[in-house]
Amino acid sequence: MTGLLIFILIVTGLYYLPRLLFPWVMRILGKRMQRQFDKMQNGAANAQPRGTQAPQHEKKVDATVGEYVDYEEIKE
Hints:
Layout: H1 2-47
């Protein structure tokens, strides 16, 4: 009789426990992801102020490759 009671308690616990723990776990994971997102946004904002562009880098061409020719499409 006690074995049956323990079995029923375990099955009932396995049924209700995930329902109770899932929202709590998701809330914790959501807060952690929000902190990481905020940290990334603050890092990006501090790295380069808004309204400024990164400096343009000139094209580097290896001298051994040959002559570099800019291609420009011409419509006829």
